[in-house]
Amino acid sequence: MTTPVALTIAGSDSSGAAGIQADLKTFAALGVYGASAITALTAQNTKGVTGIHAVPAAFVTAQIDAVFSDLDVAAVKIGMVAQAASIDAIAAALARWKPRHVVLDPVMVATSGDRLLAAEAVTALRARLMPLASVITPNLPEAAALLEEPIARSEAEIESQGRRLLSLGCRAVLIKGGHGEGAESTDYLVAADTTLALAAPRVATRNTHGTGCSLSSAVAAGLAKGEDLATAVRNAKGWISAAIGSADRFSVGHGHGPIHHFHKFY
């Protein structure tokens, strides 16, 4: 039996709710073997981030090369990249190894509001990583920040921002609607010739730590299993909605607690 493999390139969350830890939980929950390359260590809990220690770019490269030289990686998810030097290292490694699918989650700010990407690194992310991406998965504030525009407020504005993000080189854009308002949380998948709106009831919970990381990882897991992008996004949306809906089964920490990655199992 061939086991689908996905690689996450991201930061570590010491509380286990987001980042590398959330990505690996997502891969496991969806039947995909997860490998990792860590870009940064964070001192973090459900209340916030108290420290960030960036991994040297050369060692980020070493981790990626070690994984690709041995494992048959079907999809890559990129999360927190921390600094411009890491972005350059990741872009060079992916150009060398040429993975079939790359999901880029442009993580800039944690759920707690703490900044995770230096402002000067945003330009490098746009120029070096976005052209390599099969799909990018910004939330509404991240989409606006990438374009240096106000946050989109309507479906027409969201689709318009998605189109402008496509022009930066990625093949598709999934704009996540969790930061929006209303009874439903709607994500928009914008590709060259179509826009797909995916709605789910908005869940009243403060336990949302790791939601964005986990959704992008769920998309990567679907792609690793051979799903087309629209199917992978639909399945990821359904899974993350259930994980958020089950989050209050946990009582972890005193801030924004984790979602329930393994809601299907316990």
Structure report:
- This protein has 266 residues and is α/β, with parallel strands linked by helices.
- It has eight helices and nine strands.
- The strands form two sheets. It has a six-stranded mixed β-sheet with strand order 3-2-1-4-5-6.
- Helix 7 (211-224) runs antiparallel to helix 8 (229-245).
- The longest helix has 17 residues, at 229-245.
- It is globular, with a radius of gyration of 17 Å.
- The mean pLDDT is 92.
Low-confidence stretches: none
Which descriptor suits the 3D outline? globular
What's the number of extended β-strand segments? 9
* End-to-end gap: 26 Å
Query: Based on helices, strands and strand pairing, what is the structural class?
Result: alpha/beta
Q: What is the beta-strand fraction?
A: 15-25%
The helix-strand sequence is EHEEHEHEHEHHEEEHH
Largest sheet: 6 strands, mixed
Kindly report the average pLDDT value. Answer: 92
What value does the Rg take, in angstroms? 17 Å
Order of strands in the sheet with the most strands? 3-2-1-4-5-6
Helix content: 25-40%
